Amino acid sequence: MPRKLYRWGCIEPEFHWLQTKASLQGTVNKTFILLVLICVTAFYTWNLYYEGKEIHGLLLVGVIGSLIVSLFTIFVPRAAPFSAPLYALLEGLALGGISAMYEDKYSGIATQAVVLTFSVLFALLIVYKLGWIKVTRNFRIGVLSATLGIFIVYLVDLVLRFFGLQVPYLHETGWLGILISLVIVGVAALNLVLDFAFIERGVNRRAPKYMEWYAGFGLMITLVWLYVEILRLLSKIRR
Is 29 helix (H, G, I), strand (E, B) or coil? Predict the structure, then answer.
């Protein structure tokens, strides 16, 4: 859920002529590589779970490790060619275990979440390319503000859980709980539009080559968040 803090074009101008420039095809290729890496480790923990083996240690490594590596990548974009693949591998460990546990409770839910996630991705990509959504300054501020608000709510909920409490309605299965999940899914989806604009702006401004990895990394963060929120929404509806 962390938002990209680095901006295309904020590159030291004296190094521009030394670097190969980012391209749209290169960004697509890097994003695909990261997606494959996530799937590889996700299938690993998924299979371990269904073999009856302990995966909580791997889940912990995946969650904490991916968080640390993602924060490092956000603040040190030049490290993305190395840190982004590491993030993908760690995130996959967590994602596979989480998906398997949901699937164990609600048969078919993981497949539904994957299909919905990529359906939203491609639908928004088409809408963005057709120009039906314009990423204006106000649009960007609105989406980022909503994302920050959700992050704060989750952080407060995490703290409250240490005292046996939780944020009201956030985890409940009533209509209000489902509506809250729908709103969160909507905000996560709109972050994809920001990612598309981020990639397009970087290519147009001839950002350095390593930004292909950084842009792919940012898109993976949003996709993972969207997938997990769709899982949560579907589980509420199933319950």
Answer: helix
Per-residue model confidence (pLDDT) at position 173: 83
Contact call for residues 185 and 230 (beta carbons, < 8 A): yes
**CA–CA separation, 234 and 227 (whole Å):** 11
Nearest to 63 by CA among 24, 42, 90, 27: 90
The CA distances from residue 198 to 22, 59, 168, 181, 205, in Å, are 12, 31, 35, 26, 11
Structure letter (DSSP) for residue 55: -
Rounded to whole angstroms, the Cα distance separating 33 from 156 reads 34
CB 70 within 8 A of CB 87: yes
How far is C-alpha 58 from the chain's CA centre?
Answer: 19
Query: In this structure, what is the dihedral angle of CA atoms 125, 147, 98, 73, given to the nearest 10 degrees?
Result: 80
Residue 223: is it exposed, middle or buried by C-beta count within 10 angstroms (0-12/13-18/19+)?
A: buried
131-147 pLDDT per residue, tens: 899 999 999 999 999 99
- Tell me how far apart the alpha carbons of residues 105 and 239 are, in angstroms, rounded to a whole number: 10
Q: Which residue has the tokens 């709980």?
A: 177
Amino acid at 174: G
Integer Rg of the chain from CA: 18
Q: Please name the residue that has the structure tokens 């359906």.
A: 119
- What is the distance between the alpha carbons of residues 131 and 134, in angstroms, rounded to a whole number? 6
**What is the three-class DSSP state of 124?**
helix
Three-state DSSP state, 75: helix
Q: Which residue numbers in the chain have pLDDT < 50?
A: 1-18
Q: How many CA atoms lie within 13 A of 50 on its CB side?
A: 13
